[in-house]
Amino acid sequence: MAETHVDDLEGERLRFNDDTWELTGRLDVRRNGGVIDAAARKPDRVRGSTGSLRFELRDPPASLNPGNLGTFTAALEPEDGGHTLVVGREHATNHYRLESLLYD
After folding, report:
1. Every domain of the chain and the residues it spans
2. 17 vs 25, which has greater pLDDT?
């Protein structure tokens, strides 16, 4: 697992399971880059429920390398029935689809 922070994702909001979630910008790259957990919170709660939105790689095997993340960009894009995390690297672009939510 490798943890990093992406400023461009901080504050991004999305709807998942009938709730609004706000990304904190923290990403955990897991399972050889096939899974990215994005830390999030419910912005409308006083104490703020927290969790991780789990994004899974759509087109394996190319993915981020958790052993050497290098320089990359990440952007959240809506798509029919869900959301995609688009990760851009120098020679590749990977798409990770939002699949589940893990509560803290």
Report:
1. 2-103
2. 25
